[in-house]
Amino acid sequence: MRFTIKSDDIKGSLGIPPVNFPKYTTQLINLAGQNSGATRPKVVGQMSDLTVESGARSLDEWEEFYRSERPDAPVAAADKIENMVENIREAMELVDRDMIDRWVEDLLINKTYYGFRAQDAILEHLSDRLGLPLRQATPADEAAMIDGYIGGRPVSVKPTTYKQKGGLREEIRCPIIWYEKTKYGLRVDATEFQV
User: Fold this and answer.
1) Residues 137, 125 contacting (CB under 8 angstroms)
2) 132 φ/ψ angles, rounded to the nearest 5 degrees
3) Per-residue pLDDT tens for 102-147?
4) Residue 111 half-sphere exposure, CB side, CA atoms within 13 Å?
5) 62 — alpha (psi -120 to 50), left (phi > 0) or beta?
6) Which pTM was predicted?
7) Domain enclosing residue 79, as ranges
8) Beta bridge partners of 135
9) How far apart are CA 57 and CA 79, in angstroms?
10) Residue-wise over 98-109: b if at least 16 C-beta within 10 A, else e?
11) Mean confidence (pLDDT) of the chain
12) Three-state secondary-structure class, residue 55
């Protein structure tokens, strides 16, 4: 048997009162909460542990337990969110059509190109670091999952997210150079490529 229970029905059966917010406001509050770290365990506690520890069987029991364990947490979290909302409000004043146009161009042109050409930059950097010649892959090499040759040895370059894609059909028969995009650049793991 398969069925769906609506969120409002679950909340009703758990005794959680309805709470309504104006359109878009919760998205802004969520963004402010994430950017400020307001609901991280160091501020509000490790919720998964606290819910088990509480043994609460009702909303009132949970509230009483939580407020006794973390009495300052709600105010601390709200303060962090309020400060970040003010930062967002100030930033919103700076956003105009020109900035939006530049952002869209940067996304569609620069960041997209960066993303699909990152493997070339990684191969060039690794080649320079190791003092080994680099040869780019041919279309036939690419069909065999080879992205280039360093010192005459085939390598494949893949983002770390590739590991998470279950059930991939292709089999890569050469060392893989893994990379992850960070806010500072690319974090590269070339440990499979032994010199």
Assistant:
1) no
2) -115, 145
3) 999 999 999 888 877 888 999 999 999 999 999 999 999 988 999 9
4) 10
5) alpha
6) 0.66
7) 7-94
8) 149
9) 30
10) eeeeeeeeeeee
11) 91
12) coil
